[in-house]
């Protein structure tokens, strides 16, 4: 019973401070309660508590930190258009530029390489958006 009280006691700071380590210690306390329920003595209960808590902190915390550092995978706005394919509607070159159909809309476009020319009907890839102009290859 004391282990369950400890688990609840460790769960309160988890909710208040949002520190996941308290949750891992609470899970360790629940594991200690299970050990006590299975007839384990005081020493095995503490060993299970410490072992489960340390194992969770050692495994889950680095995974959570790595996940937190990753940037979101969902791109929106003009960032979502980078890397998309488009169809050339009017001749596109590195100088004057031309027009492409990108994501159902007509965009001004210019070639990334100033010497490259794309004719109507060709497929191009958008590498960047500069203002209202798509830069294509």
TrEMBL record:
Keywords: Membrane, Transmembrane, Transmembrane helix. The keyword Transmembrane applies. It is found in: Membrane. The chain crosses the membrane at residues 43-64. It is a multi-pass membrane protein. Residues 79-136 form the NfeD-like C-terminal domain. InterPro entries: Membrane_assoc_protease, NA-bd_OB-fold, NfeD-like_C. Pfam families: NfeD (PF01957). The keyword Transmembrane applies. Its main location: membrane. PANTHER family: INNER MEMBRANE PROTEIN YBBJ. This is NfeD family protein. It comes from Streptomyces caniferus.
């Amino acid at each position: 019973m004391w282990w369950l009280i400890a688990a609840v006691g460790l769960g309160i700071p988890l909710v208040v401070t949002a520190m996941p380590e308290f949750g891992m210690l609470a899970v360790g306390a629940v594991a200690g309660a299970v050990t006590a329920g299975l007839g384990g003595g005081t020493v095995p209960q503490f060993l299970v508590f410490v072992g489960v808590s340390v194992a969770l902190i050692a495994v889950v915390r680095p995974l959570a930190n790595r996940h937190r550092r990753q940037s979101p995978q969902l791109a929106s706005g003009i960032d979502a258009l980078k890397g998309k394919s488009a169809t050339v509607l009017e001749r596109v070159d590195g100088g004057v530029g031309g027009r492409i159909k990108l994501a159902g809309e007509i965009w001004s476009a210019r070639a990334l390489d100033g010497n490259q020319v794309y004719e109507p009907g060709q497929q191009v890839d958008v590498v960047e958006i500069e203002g209202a102009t798509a830069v294509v290859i």
